[in-house]
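User: Now give one protein:

AI:
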Amino acid sequence: MAFKLGSKGKGRRKRSVSAEINVTPLVDVMLVLLVIFMATAPMLSAGVPVDIPDSQAGAIHEDDQGPIEVTLTGTGQIYVGETPVTQARLLELLGAMTKDDPNRRIFLRADKKLNYGDVMGTLGVLSSAGYGKIALITQQGVTAPAGK
């Protein structure tokens, strides 16, 4: 290793003042904040906790008005948004929310532990009321089990 020794007789040199801004700490802080927001964003989604089934279906594009979420829990309770309702009152509440517009999109979320007949029963009630844009919500990106 070689070291450069100061020249004789010149004394100490003065360092010039640097006018540059060090952005490395700023970038570090911004990356930490990005990671924090990415980790907490999925936890901020409001709604009724439901264990929905998996699917390979693509994402659904939302309308300008936004969809109405109807949720069926594992115990059979029905929610519109976060409001619990009975099956008899379901159509009355949906009619008031959609202003009897049958083209309004409805997202149906159902717990995977529910009986298929319960989910189809609610889907049939919605369909018979004239709602034609009903989408079943699933978890995306999981492959279906192979048939036997």
Observations:
- The mean pLDDT is 77.
